[in-house]
Amino acid sequence: GESVGLHLPTLSVQEGDNSIINCAYSNSASDYFIWYKQESGKGPQFIIDIRSNMDKRQGQRVTVLLNKTVKHLSLQIAATQPGDSAVYFCAESYILTGGGNKLTFGTGTQLKVEL
Amino acid sequence: EPEVTQTPSHQVTQMGQEVILRCVPISNHLYFYWYRQILGQKVEFLVSFYNNEISEKSEIFDDQFSVERPDGSNFTLKIRSTKLEDSAMYFCASTGGMTDTQYFGPGTRLTVL
Question: Residue A61 has what DSSP assignment?
Fold first, then answer.
């Protein structure tokens, strides 16, 4: 069946280092992928997205890479800061015939930034 | 910056009771969603709503669940007879366009005793 999963449940990095969070997906028909950040007790917060016709997209301190050949998605955070500590989810978007799109989330990676 | 809001932030109820979770989506958005997240688990899709109709629902969204947009601003999720396993965070989300990014509210923590 379709699934979106994360390779590492916990990632610890030193402040100032770069972080890389990975995600595997199984539905090759997906055309839109999103990274969300979730802090404790809060809702998922949009970070960056990428469409399947791209292989890289950059934002402020974040870069998403998409490798469709191996169905792999990654989130790179440059110069990781304590405020980046959170759980990061990748999500796969499916367009619904009745309208809108449905997100299928991965299990999440806990990013811990050490001072 | 516009945002999705949800009330209450925490709802405690007895098993078998009805609960209504409320959401105010971003004002010009047209597509509305509910998701839930059991503690320590991933976020799961429940239902999508567009043009006053459910456009998709998951197997979790059984006959005990219903959604409504009673006016131009609110979007509600009702659980008719709550079960212990309904305890979770419930998130509302909305988008302006069909393929646009979904923006999430802060969630309502539902505790069923």
Answer: S
